[in-house]
Input
Amino acid sequence: MTDVLERLRALQADDLPVHGGHTLAYVYDSGLPDIDRIAREAVGAAVATNGLDPTAFPSLLRMENDLVAFALRLLDAPGTGVGTVTSGGTESVLLAVQTARDARPEVERPAMVLPSTRHAAFDKAAHYFGVEKRIVPVGSDFRADVDATADAIRELGDRVVLVVASAPSYAHGVIDPVPELAALAATRNIRCHVDACIGGWVLPYAARLGRPVPPWSFAVDGVTSVSVDLHKYGYAPKGTSLLLHRTPELRRPQFFASADWPGYTMLNSTMQSTKSGGPLAGAWAVVESLGDEGYLTLTRRVFAAVDAIVAGIEASPSLSLVASPDSSLVTFETDGSCDAFSLCDEMLERGWYVQPQMSYAGHGPSVHLSVSAGTLAHVEEFVAELGEAVAAAQSTGPVSVDPGIAAYIESLDPAALTDADFDGLLAASGLVGEDSGGGLALPSRLAEVNAMLDLASPAMREALLIAFLDRLTRPTG
Ligand SMILES: Cc1ncc(COP(=O)(O)O)c(C=O)c1O
Output
C-alpha cells in the first residue's frame, strides 16, 4: 500500500515544484502551507462524491452557490447575477461560446469577434462548436482595437453572437478596453464575454489596494458574462473556474437535459456530467478560509513581487518589458545579445521555471511570468538569478537552427504532415536517440527545439506539436 505512494512520489521527482514560488507559470502558490493542507483535506473529503445530480449531494450544491455568491460580489454583478462552477478556464470559455451560439438558434453561420490576443481556448470553442472566429489585430499597446472591432461587427452583421475581451490577456498581461467593446456589443444586442480567467481574482483586490485598474467587470454596462478561475489566483487546487452571467436568462442555453433515453434524465450545467466534488470542495475551503482579507494580503504580496521583478527588468540593459503590466503577469523580451529561449533554460538550471513565448504577429519571442504571492519571499533571489541567467545566455550566444532543418520545415505542409515527415525532422534534429530505444530523446535544454519551432508558422507549430503529443502518449509497455 505505501509502496505505491512511494512510487508516486518518485514519479513526481522530475515535475516542476508546485510550492516555493519558483514556478512562474502553470501553478499559483499562495506560500501558505495551512491553505495547501486545508485544500488537500477538502479535496480528499469530497473526492468520491458526484456532481452529476445536485440533489444527491446537497453539500456540493451549497458549496457551488457559496462560491458563485462570493464571485458575483467580487466582480460587481447586479442582484440578478448567476454562475456555475466549471473544471477550468477552458471549460468556462467553451461554455460562454456555446451559450452565446445557442441563444441565437436562428443564426445559420454564427460568428464571434475576438482580439488577436484572446486565449486559445476561444479557438478551441470555435473549432468544437462551429462558430466562425473573426480575429481582429490588436493595437501597438497589445490592447483590442475598438475601431477595428466595430468594423468587424459591422461587416459580419447579424451573424455576430459574441464579442470577447480579456482582463488581462495571458500573453501580454494587459486589459482590453472593456467599456468600449461592451458598448459596441450592447448597441447591437450582442453578448460580450470578459475572459478574466487569470486576472479576475486579482484585479478587484488590486483596485482595493489603490492600484490603477481600468474598468472591466460587471460594473461595465454591456458585459454579459465573465470567466474567472479559482485554480489560478483563487489559489484553489486545480479543477475549478467560474462562469458568471448577468442574468439567469443569459445563462439558460448553457444547461443541457436529456430525457430521451431509458436511464436517468441527464441534467447538466457544464460539459462534464459525472464529476468529482473534490475540486469544488477544495476551492470552497480555500475561499472560505482566505476570505476578502486573505486575498487582499496575498494580492499585496503579488504586487510587491511584480514591482520588484519589473524594477529588475528595467534595470537590465538586455531586457525590456513588452507591456507595462496591468495585473500580475509580466512579459519581457531580450535584446540581440541574449537569446530568450536560452535565458529560459538558464533560469530552469537555477531552479526557476519561466515560460517562453514564440514569435507572433511580427513580434519576437518573449518570456512570460505569472507572479504568485509565494514568489515574494524569494524575489530578490529571482532578480539576481535573472541577471546571472542573462549573462550566461549571452556567453553561450544565440541558438541557431541548422539551415538544412530550417529548409526542411519550410518544405513541409502543415495540413498534410505525415508520421514520416515528423520522423525525418526528429532524426535530422537529433531528437530521436539510440539511448531512448528509438523513442523521443528530449534534451534538458530546450532552446534549440524552441528556436526551431519559432521559425515555423503557427499552423506548422500546431502540426508538429500534435505529432509530438501523439508520440508522447503512446504507452511504452
Ligand atoms: C485569459 C485566460 N483564459 C483562459 C485560460 C484557460 O484556462 P485553463 O488553462 O484553466 O483551461 C487561461 C489560462 O491561462 C487564461 O490565461
Q: What stands out?
A: The pocket of pyridoxal-5'-phosphate is lined by residues 88-90, 93, 119, 121, 166, 170, 195, 197-198, 229, 241 (CB under 6 Å). The chain has a mean pLDDT of 96. The radius of gyration is 23 Å.
